[in-house]
Hints:
The chain is α/β, with parallel strands linked by helices. It is 35% helix and 25% strand. The chain has one domain (7-197): Formyl transferase, N-terminal domain (Rossmann fold).
Amino acid sequence: MEDAPLKNIAVFASGRGSNFSAIIRAVKKGKIKANLSLLISDNPKAGAIARAKRAGVKMALVKREDFSSKSDFEKRIIQHLQDNKIELVILAGFMRVLGPDLIQTFNQRILNIHPAILPSFKGAQGIKDAFDYGVKVTGVTIHFVDAEMDHGPIVLQAQVLVEENDTLESLEKKIHKIEHKLYPQAIRLFLEGKLRVEGRKVKITP
Ligand code: GAR
């Protein structure tokens, strides 16, 4: 029997790109069976762009300030996604709340990673907010994206203990280490067709 053709996936990143690199590694090792077809970035200074160049991943820079409306900005992004026949969008530190254009076009085909146990500590600095709050347990969440920030149905979560001697820096390291394992797992489940969204719940086929 012939294998099904590989799906094309795109990563969106605004910053450093360590999750993007983890995804590149997982694709190279065959842990994620897909074509990593495109990186979309909104930030010319994003470390992710250099990582894409090194790995030979096609990159599109789409800057919000080049468009008069968010809708036009997203339409350009959608054009890139459609031109590249993208079937799954992976937000990896893409620091923008997506609007209805993208969310409707890629309904239940956009994943996000957040460095805390949602619904706690949403926003741009989840690790610091949890650390400053004094929690003893925090972690990582992978979820489908909906119209609200860090909000859609949860696919996977993993916990990270905050120990007595942890600093913000040591906690960040622990969280990123978990992120780099958990995101490829969630992407793999999606690509294997094992995720089914039922309202707020995501059922995972064993
Ligand atoms: C990651 O820790 C990710 O969870 C976070 O941005 C970081 C990107 O790091 N996302 C959010 O906070 C979303 N609200 P990276 O560029 O090294 O992958």
